[in-house]
Amino acid sequence: MQFTAQQISLLLNGTVEGDALVAVDKLAKIEEGTPGSLSFLANPKYEQHLYTTGASIVIINKDYVLNGPVSATLIRVDNAYSAFSVLLEQYNTIKLNKTGIEQPSFIHPTAKVGSNVFIGAFAYVGPNATIGDNSKIYPNTYIADNVTIGNNVTLFSGVKVYFDCVLGDNVIIHSGAVIGSDGFGFAPNPDGSYNKISQIGNVVIEENVEIGANSTVDRATMGSTIIRKGVKIDNLVQIAHNVEVGQNTVIAGQAGISGSTKIGEQAVIGGQVGIAGHLTISKGSQFSAQTGVNSSTREEGKQWGGSPYLPLKDYLRAHVNIRRLPELEKRVAELEKMIAELHNNK
Amino acid sequence: MQFTAQQISLLLNGTVEGDALVAVDKLAKIEEGTPGSLSFLANPKYEQHLYTTGASIVIINKDYVLNGPVSATLIRVDNAYSAFSVLLEQYNTIKLNKTGIEQPSFIHPTAKVGSNVFIGAFAYVGPNATIGDNSKIYPNTYIADNVTIGNNVTLFSGVKVYFDCVLGDNVIIHSGAVIGSDGFGFAPNPDGSYNKISQIGNVVIEENVEIGANSTVDRATMGSTIIRKGVKIDNLVQIAHNVEVGQNTVIAGQAGISGSTKIGEQAVIGGQVGIAGHLTISKGSQFSAQTGVNSSTREEGKQWGGSPYLPLKDYLRAHVNIRRLPELEKRVAELEKMIAELHNNK
Amino acid sequence: MQFTAQQISLLLNGTVEGDALVAVDKLAKIEEGTPGSLSFLANPKYEQHLYTTGASIVIINKDYVLNGPVSATLIRVDNAYSAFSVLLEQYNTIKLNKTGIEQPSFIHPTAKVGSNVFIGAFAYVGPNATIGDNSKIYPNTYIADNVTIGNNVTLFSGVKVYFDCVLGDNVIIHSGAVIGSDGFGFAPNPDGSYNKISQIGNVVIEENVEIGANSTVDRATMGSTIIRKGVKIDNLVQIAHNVEVGQNTVIAGQAGISGSTKIGEQAVIGGQVGIAGHLTISKGSQFSAQTGVNSSTREEGKQWGGSPYLPLKDYLRAHVNIRRLPELEKRVAELEKMIAELHNNK
């Protein structure tokens, strides 16, 4: 699809400088702009690119003063960054606007499917599953028996949702993520083997949650593993059985939360962080990447690092000390020599 | 399905106190019990909930003495915990009791499929593959050429098993796990590029193994990557080519075992642990979470921690020392000052 | 398929010693050889097995001098190891030589599919997607709209490629890997919730790249996440949005690269390594397993370890010092006692 500078300007409530009829069909960074593309300038750091960009249209702030000739058509708006964000979102909405039911797909006769949905080929919707309005179930996705899925939900290709799980409105789950697999629970036998403990709970994901590609969220042994509303989870993250992740918490790639741990709201968990089981993590706690958390936190909003974890400042200081350890050992050896001399001279 | 207190009591060889005809259709924790649900009381810590629970039926020990009025119907048994475990298992068995072959699925004419199996829609069973009796192959699962699968095996939705791999009886594999992908083997060329080394071995998984969601087990370069019987592997675990994992070993989430390493039996490997290649790990070794193992272990049944790893006790002690490092540096500086003074005063 | 010693010898330009008509149908390590299998002897460490192996045929070097009777037929060649590698590759090529389009599969009428391809059952090829000649798309694989796939590409079962991504010639991607999922980008709101930042870029994978099972490569916010030619990526690796991985770099299992980081060519990144965002890693940098990289590197070809990372030698030395910390504390305490004595005796 092509849009002219005039059309875009109308949409953004802006004013056009230059050729109002020039047309674009893609978005680009200003330093990578080519003819037919639309860019924006918000960060003064990138200002020099305005005069050399190959983009056909650039969105800039109303009050921006030019320092030279510009070949692109300009659209002036109140806030170039937020105007461009609006376009990004519109672009994506148009791009991902699929509806209809592709064939072959499998929709059990007892499943309830809302209006205006997309169900891709080779998608599976099991007995008594419910899918809300405007939801998109991409190809090769599996929705097991009795799963409930809200409105405006997107499950990208290859997501697997085990039986009885519940997903709220506006949830987005990326390819390969697994929701509701069995918790890791086994009881040891005298002969060293293990008996599986049946995992009969489920997973509840509240509204506005996003979960990244190939992440896993295990079902509860009994009750629910709960992801509260607004939580954002990156790729390859492990959430074990009976965990509860508090509202608006953010979890970066490859982090893992062990069984029955409760994470407070607004926490920030860095990449590859590991949090042990049966802990309580207080609201707003922040863990830097690779932190190992082996006990509950008490204070809110504190920063942590290291494995086992320490207050971030203490950890960083200790790490500087560690680098100086060879030097410290030498200083101690020198002291020992001097003391020995003093003794002998006594 | 609904069951009355009387029916359940008969099954558990118990005795009913209260309304024998009250019916339940789900299981719940005693503190979360609602009308229509069945709970149990085993841990005295939860005793107070017995008197307030909304559950319709509670299973308790024969010899438990009531301290007040209870509204739920009680079923008294020898051991409330193990009686409840029996019910959990029965519940799950009924819940997951699927059989039959859904359409469309792909079963190659040369594949051999046992009796009483479930093969879900969009599942693929390749040429010369064998599936034993009572096995369940969930939708969107891929079983390549010449794969052998035993009896009572469960492959949840989206499991991928590459050609020539062998799975024993009672194996359970969760969604998205990949069995038999190529080992990571490349030979460097003088120009900096790499040549792939063909990986022509397979993976052998013995009986009673469980493997978690999105875990990966690579095929051997030649010979077999072997998971011995009774091994339990959590989610997002990486097992590299030619690894052997000993009987009844347990591996927690996001741990990784590098190529050709042999893990002894009854080991316990914590979350996010990394074990380097070509090592031998002795029987019963225990690694705490995030441990980094860069050499073989000799002693059996020992606990380890840290990266690179140390005996767990040494590691924990060293970590306390690390926290005190800034203090230690100050003490050394103080000593240096005092020694200088002593020198000057001499 | 069966091959005689004579046929194999012809292929390898070798000479046969023993029964030229003995036939084999599989490859085996010399110590695991059984009748009907073909082995090789290159490493003198395994020499003893030549005299006891059950293999029917063994490939050995031309100049190898026997020290006893051998029951296997021998094929003598210039270089036993490279001769065997040739066979390995041929074996695998024959083994994986699938072509044709299985049914049911989904190929959009606007998709362009080259000649001599394999498209497995339940594979999905979206609108305007292009698949080059001789490529293999295994069952249950998903190729979204506008994806471009080169020649001789192999996508194993269950790979997911999001819209607009580009894969060069000879790329191999293993089961469950996800290419082009959304980058992890969110803008905070005053109420603590987050707004999704649309991710409209793509992923470009150049020729001769291999990506392991269940790894994830996120699409760029704008522009491209780029994997340069010859890069080899193991299982369960996370590559975040706008990352660029330089030519011939090798990344081991469970490593993670955060957003916008540029990795130089010929780097070697160990298992479970984490690299923070917006960094530049110089050419040939080597990171040992579990390293945590929190700043850019300047020097080329250097080895690093630890978290936060240090030059590998410094890290290993510091680690030795850490083990001696309890001892060092004792030495300091001893010094303090002696100094106090000296003071008192003054």
From TrEMBL, chains A, B, C:
Keyword annotations of the record: Acyltransferase, Lipid A biosynthesis, Lipid biosynthesis, Lipid metabolism, Repeat, Transferase
Transmembrane segment boundaries: none
Active site: 241
Enzyme class name: transferase
Residues of the UDP-3-O-[3-hydroxymyristoyl] glucosamine N-acyltransferase non-repeat region domain: 23-89
Catalysed reactions, as listed in the record: a UDP-3-O-[(3R)-3-hydroxyacyl]-alpha-D-glucosamine + a (3R)-hydroxyacyl-[ACP] = a UDP-2-N,3-O-bis[(3R)-3-hydroxyacyl]-alpha-D-glucosamine + holo-[ACP] + H(+)
Subunit structure: Homotrimer.
Function recorded in the entry: Catalyzes the N-acylation of UDP-3-O-acylglucosamine using 3-hydroxyacyl-ACP as the acyl donor. Is involved in the biosynthesis of lipid A, a phosphorylated glycolipid that anchors the lipopolysaccharide to the outer membrane of the cell.
Name of protein: UDP-3-O-acylglucosamine N-acyltransferase
Biological source species: Mucilaginibacter roseus
UniProt gene name: lpxD
